[in-house]
Amino acid sequence: MRSMFRATVIAPILCVMVAASARAQQVCTKIAYVNTQALMEVAPGRVAAESLLNKTGDGFRVQLQKLQDSAQTMLTNYQKDQAKLTPVAKDKAEKALQAIEADIQTKQQQFQQQFDAKRQEVMAPITDVVKKVLDDVRAEDCYAMILDNAPGAGSIVSADKNLDITDRVVSRLRATPAAKAKAGDPTPKGAPAAPAGVTSKPPKPPAR
After folding, report:
1. How many CB atoms lie within 10 A of CB 167?
2. Are 41 and 151 in contact (CB under 8 A)?
3. Cβ of 44: how many Cβ atoms within 10 Å?
4. 119 near 46, Cβ under 8 Å?
5. Rounded distance, CA 137 to CA 17, Å?
6. CATH of the domain at 163
7. In which domain, by residue range, is 38 found?
8. How many separate domains does the chain show?
């Protein structure tokens, strides 16, 4: 009787263990794809991050605009007084114009580098969240891989629409909390394309 009782208890446990072992040894062969652009549009923290980067870009644009306004004023004055300038004064004015042009170009490069670094910093937590959700979905449904089919980014030329799991991942992202900002940066993370005005060129001095 005792041995029968043990057998009755142990048998279901062994069945569970065998099933778990079978799942652990299961080879995932399914493939799915997503539109990563759609995922990034709903990624938690994106809106606040875009606001942060827009403010950063606006600050750079204001500084450049001041330099460009100074360059334009110098150029206007030079053109107005050019006929009555002595060769020495003319040379000095043209060198000043060249100097402020070089300063603007240097500032443009510096601001673009700073903006790119800031963008990378604030994008990292968002892309990490998206990647984790994709990894979770892949593991849960036993996909061998999930491909990117975003317009202009993916390399899939034809696929069964039933393999598109974008909507499912979007739903999961909407329910995912935003990543916490780093200490000292109270704004969550994300990104726009580039700081407006950082690529404009200053007026060039006339040829001597």
Report:
1. 11
2. no
3. 22
4. no
5. 24
6. 3.30.910.20
7. 29-174
8. 1
Residue 96 has what pLDDT?
93
Tell whether 2 is covered by a domain: no
195, part of any domain: no
C-alpha to C-alpha distance for 190 and 123, rounded to whole angstroms? 5
Query: Side-chain half-sphere of 18: how many Cα atoms within 13 Å?
Result: 6
Q: Is 162 inside a domain boundary? A: yes
Q: Which parts of the chain are beta strand (E)?
A: 30-34, 143-148
* Averaged pLDDT in 10-residue chunks for the chain of 208 residues: 46 43 68 95 92 94 94 93 91 93 94 95 93 96 94 83 95 88 44 38 42
Instruction: Kindly tell me the sign of the dihedral angle through the C-alpha atoms of 151, 153, 158, 163.
Output: negative
Tell me how far apart the alpha carbons of residues 133 and 197 are, in angstroms, rounded to a whole number: 36
Collapsing DSSP states into helix, strand and coil, what is residue 14?
Answer: helix
